[in-house]
Amino acid sequence: xxxxxxxxxxxxxxxxxxxxxxxxxxxxxxxxxxxxxxxxxxxxxxxxxxxxxxxxxxxxxxxxxxxxxxxxxxxxxxxxxxxxxxxxxxxxxxxxxxxxxxxxxxxxxxxxxxxxxxxxxxxxxxxxxxxxxxxxxxxxxxxxxxxxxxxxxxxxxxxxxxxxxxxxxxxxxxxxxxxxxxxxxxxxxxxxxxxxxxxxxxxxxxxxxxxxxxxxxxxxxxxxxxxxxxxxxxxxxxxxxxxxxxxxxxxxxxxxxxxxxxxxxxxxxxxxxxxxxxxxxxxxxxx
Length: 287
Known about the structure:
CATH architecture of the largest domain: Sandwich
Distance between the termini: 130 Å
Strand order of the largest sheet: 18-26-23-20-21
Low-confidence stretches: none
Oligomer: single chain
CATH class of the largest domain: Mainly Beta
Shape: rod-shaped
């Protein structure tokens, strides 16, 4: 007669389980339970996690992988109660940087700001130059040549010790050139007036305020007879690319075509020279 030893499963202790967290977003979660000779292991956890390794890992973890992980250890046919360990995966700190626009004019200064309440701030600038400190919430910089300026930002969440980085691309535009259109229209009836609307435009948006002086100049048209002379300063707030200047044209009953000019000069933060001459628009008054 054969006799078989029977294992009293009630004496088998529940396994212990552990991990090496808390973790930061993107880290590898490492789970562990003590080795038992001849045992098999089974882990389960959030999002359908399952493994038969004694010390399984989970790469590129996110906050969604946080939660309780359970392990069962089966030995000699006995499966005692589960062991468990709580895994915490902290979300990365916010790294959104704030710059007022998606563009900047070449050789122009700007300021970018990162989220408040973080630590170990770090900035670097590609396609431009950082001005002053690069270890604070805010960085001052100057754009380089036309193309792309990249603001590289990093910081640490002091509550979790987790760090993150972010890059923001800013388009660098050349200094804009100012242009003005020609206006060709029929003269109003004698004794009446109309307006010739000249559109003054920038070929690129500017992150600085642009101004230009304009004035009318008689050609075959006579000031105060065929049109009302006008002059002044046109201002483009940052980001604005077009302004309109209206010149009053008088009806004289003339039977021939008349012309006058609107000339642009003395620009600031822009160029108003075309083919070596100040930009100008022609007003053509047809009979």
